[in-house]
């Protein structure tokens, strides 16, 4: 089996489509029988409810604080090839509880070590901050996927985010690569969206993924039903674009070319 790819979906800006992207790529990969683990590293627990899970006995909190072995906190989902390491608001405490702990930034990486090889892809949904949880994700992963909303303030913070990633790469994780920037909530009729998308593509060039995820009410509806869009309405524009993205990553994308 090929080496497991760990992909964290991050942007410190809130509400840009991180969870939607993590949930839909994880389910799309699992739907074509790749063994996938989805880790919800956000105390909001949106990726957990996004795959229809509620009231978990154990969550990523126990794994992160090394209170339980990782395999014991994993739950099955509606898809046989998709497992979930869920979260809930208990995880908010982990950020503080980890502060006095040795190697606090490596806890996810350490907890994942023995389990990693059971999966082909691991997606980590990060919270909207650059705190200790996100740092744990960036140290445990190989690739960072950055959803970016095509709006005026989108570029604010992006350069800083990219330079933070470079710092983490130099200091903690030399394997770390940028998978790409994904333009989300794109409305092709909106001039501002078009202009921002063009600026991002001109400036960041080939690190921007080729397809944009359209703004679609069906995507928002799907989240409220606890279903990924590709299972809620697989013919909707949002679902088709996430499937196209998954297909591109699985068939065309050169994972080795990234820096
Ligand atoms: N392409 C889209 N079109 C319309 N609505 C969308 C789209 N993508 C996501 N949404 C909706 O926007 C909201 C925010 O999306 P999401 O939760 O994926 O963002 P996030 O970056 O994970 O947010 P947070 O920073 O709070 O974790 C959700 O209600 C989601 O259903
Ligand atoms: Mg989220």
TrEMBL record:
Residues 4-178 form the AAA domain. InterPro entries: AAA_dom (IPR025669), DNA_Partitioning_ATPase (IPR050678), P-loop_NTPase (IPR027417). It comes from the Bacteria. Involved in chromosome partition. Localize to both poles of the predivisional cell following completion of DNA replication. This is Chromosome partitioning protein ParA. It comes from Holospora obtusa F1.
């Amino acid at each position: 089996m090929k080496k497991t790819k760990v992909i964290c979906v991050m942007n410190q800006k809130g509400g840009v489509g991180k969870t939607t992207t993590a949930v839909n790529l994880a389910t799309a990969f699992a739907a074509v029988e790749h063994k996938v683990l989805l880790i919800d590293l956000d105390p909001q627990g949106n990726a957990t409810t996004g795959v229809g899970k509620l009231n978990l006995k154990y969550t990523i909190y126990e794994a992160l604080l090394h209170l339980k072995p990782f395999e014991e906190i994993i739950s099955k989902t509606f898809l046989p090839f998709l497992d979930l390491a869920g979260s809930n608001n208990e995880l908010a405490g982990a950020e503080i509880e980890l502060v006095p702990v040795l190697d606090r930034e490596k806890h996810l990486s350490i907890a994942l070590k023995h389990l990693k090889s059971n999966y082909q892809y691991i997606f980590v949904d990060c919270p909207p901050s650059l705190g200790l949880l996100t740092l744990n994700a960036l140290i445990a992963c190989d690739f960072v996927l950055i959803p970016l909303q095509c709006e005026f303030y989108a570029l604010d913070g992006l350069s800083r985010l990219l330079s933070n990633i470079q710092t983490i790469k130099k200091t903690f994780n030399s394997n770390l690569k940028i998978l790409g920037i994904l333009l989300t909530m794109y409305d092709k009729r909106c001039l501002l969206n078009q202009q921002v998308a063009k600026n991002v593509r001109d400036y960041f060039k080939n690190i921007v993924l080729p397809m944009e995820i359209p703004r679609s009410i069906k995507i928002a509806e799907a989240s409220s039903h606890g279903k990924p869009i590709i299972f809620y309405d697989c013919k909707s524009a949002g679902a088709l674009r996430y499937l196209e993205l998954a297909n591109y990553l699985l068939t065309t994308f050169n994972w080795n070319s990234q820096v």
